[in-house]
Design a protein that fits this description.
There is one protein chain. The chain is α/β, with parallel strands linked by helices. The protein has a single domain, classed as Glycosidases (TIM Barrel, Alpha-Beta Barrel), CATH 3.20.20.80. The chain contains 18 helices and 13 strands. Strands 1-2-3-4-5-7-10-11 form an eight-stranded parallel beta barrel, surrounded by five helices. Strands 6-8-9 form a three-stranded mixed sheet. The longest helix is centred in the middle third of the chain and has 25 residues. It is globular, with a radius of gyration of 21 Å. Bound molecules: 6-O-phosphono-beta-D-glucopyranose. The site of 6-O-phosphono-beta-D-glucopyranose has 14 residues, from loops.
Length: 488
């Protein structure tokens, strides 16, 4: 059934992690008059344009105001783990420069900003006594955002688990961490939901579990056997469900919550009804370990059969908690991961191998497949009956050299964004319920195992001086937002 896979694709298969389809009738814009053409390239009115970051990648100040240590502090300080031998100790120094950074966000014309809260700032030991100074930083940030007319979307877990929890209970290997996460989520939601109306629970389960607990290439650097790894997946799903319940119990009425997942992106290799159906099956099955169980309350039969004796141990009550209703689903969309065709053999799809010459951005994993932004939300909405989708991340790495005149002409990133956004608009024009889009990332930052070597920002950061300079893509994005339309 499966051919040769990239690292990220394989992460999906290893976790056998979820999704779906529909038929498309793209409009032929070349034959339309100019005014109709503009209407046909517009996003729905009220579409939420945003940008995104995460705490460990930008904040720095890792020892300030009582912040506890996270597994990423430990990991990035372990020799050989980060390609350029850097760490997040200073990163973008956003902790001290947040006012300037809110100015940068405002300069894009976005309406929304997705950031993450560092759990070890709020609960330095993961559980127990909270650290009020930790939450104070987010209070200051929120006030600044709101004063500038920017709606905050907060992520509660973007990988920086308190080290104390890793040491005490093995982190996500134990459901104690799931409970601790819910306690932290409820605590934060109670205090911030006067200003934060939307919370993302966990970011990219499919990545941090497989990379961190399966292959040992992300924090905490463990290589656990399949049964334990499946249990880690289950504990994270349980943590998500418990956090949804805690937020409902503690936050102000009307607070919205949902996950932000790097869904395994399955696309029809050629758009035939059979292949589209195959992409639907593949989406569900290859996201079985998180999104599908979260959205349906069941592990699929194929998932349980494939896992066999290594399947996670769970109870019916846990499945109910895991599938507590969400208000939205966040999808992080970057590369096309699986081009599929229909197959007679169960479960009904074959994955095609990628040719070596398939185009990529400036990261080996980041293949360019603009139609990912069309198929993934479309199939997701259909198979899981989702009525509110956010593209919680999309963006690209580029080499971002400074030209002789001091500017960064990142035409490759613009090419990537223009094509992905054109496909996303195609989806919204067909009624796919995508309500907003968060471009990754506001500014260059600490890109995990790549350190400062990979740049995804709309603003270039000089990591010596910490000066921020807008790239050409910042002007490109501002223009799209101002017109609420793609510039084709
Ligand atoms: C997503 C993450 O996987 O992609 C971000 O949510 C990350 O935190 C981005 O920065 C790029 O990934 P990478 O692995 O190239 O740093």
């Amino acid at each position: 059934m499966f051919g040769k896979f990239s690292r990220r694709q394989f992460a999906r298969l290893a976790g056998f992690s979820a999704l779906g389809m529909a038929s498309a009738t793209p409009q032929d814009s070349a034959t339309q008059p100019a005014s109709d053409r503009r209407a046909s390239t517009s996003f729905p009115s009220g579409f939420i344009w945003g940008t995104a970051t995460s705490a460990y990648q930008i904040e720095g100040a890792v020892k300030e105001d009582g912040r506890g240590q996270s597994i990423w502090d430990t990991f990035s300080h372990t020799l050989g783990k980060i390609r350029d031998h850097s760490n997040g100790d200073r990163a973008d120094d956003h902790y001290h420069r947040y006012k300037e950074d809110v100015g940068l966000i405002k300069g894009l014309g976005v309406k929304a900003y997705r950031f993450s809260i560092a759990w070890p700032r709020v609960f330095p030991d993961g559980t127990g006594a909270p650290n009020p100074k930790g939450l104070d930083f987010y209070n200051r940030l929120l006030d600044e955002l709101l004063a500038n007319g920017i709606e905050p979307f907060a992520t509660l877990y973007h990988w920086d688990l308190p080290q104390a929890l890793q040491d005490r209970v093995g982190g996500w290997q134990s459901s104690e961490t799931s409970k601790a996460f819910a306690n932290y989520a409820g605590y934060v939601a109670e205090r911030l939901s006067d200003r934060v109306k939307s919370f993302f629970t966990v970011n990219e389960v499919g990545r941090f579990v497989n990379f961190g607990y399966g292959w040992g290439i992300d924090a905490p650097g463990l290589k656990l056997p399949p049964a334990t790894l499946n249990q880690v997946h289950h504990n994270v799903a349980l943590g998500h469900g418990l956090a949804v319940q805690a937020i409902r119990a503690k936050a102000r009425a009307g607070t919205k919550v949902g996950p932000a997942e790097n869904i395994a992106a399955c696309l029809p290799a050629i758009d035939t009804p059979e292949n589209i159906r195959a992409a639907e099956i593949a989406t569900r099955e290859l996201n079985a370990g998180f999104l599908n169980v979260v959205l349906t309350g069941k592990y699929t039969d194929a998932f349980l059969k494939y896992a066999g004796k290594d399947a996670p141990k769970f109870t019916d009550d846990e499945l109910k908690i895991i599938s507590s209703p969400n208000d939205f689903v966040g999808l992080n969309i970057y590369a096309p991961q699986f081009y599929v065709v229909a197959s007679e053999k169960a479960p009904g799809f074959d994955v095609l191998p990628f040719p070596a010459s398939f185009p990529r951005m400036n990261s080996d994993w980041l293949r360019v497949g603009p139609e990912t932004a069309y198929w993934v939300p479309k199939l997701s909405a259909k198979i899981w009956n989702i009525d509110t989708i956010y593209i919680s991340e999309n963006g690209a790495s580029a080499d971002d050299k400074i030209a002789a005149d001091g500017n960064v002409y990142d035409l490759d990133r613009i090419m990537y964004l223009r094509n992905y956004l054109t496909q996303l608009q195609r989806a919204t024009a067909e009624g796919v319920p995508v309500r907003g889009y968060f471009l990754w990332s506001l500014m260059d930052n600490f890109e995990w195992i790549y350190g400062f070597d990979k740049r995804f920002g709309l603003y270039r950061v000089d990591f010596d001086t910490l000066r921020r300079t807008p790239k050409l893509s910042a002007a490109f994005y501002r223009n799209i937002i101002a017109r609420n339309a793609v510039d084709v």
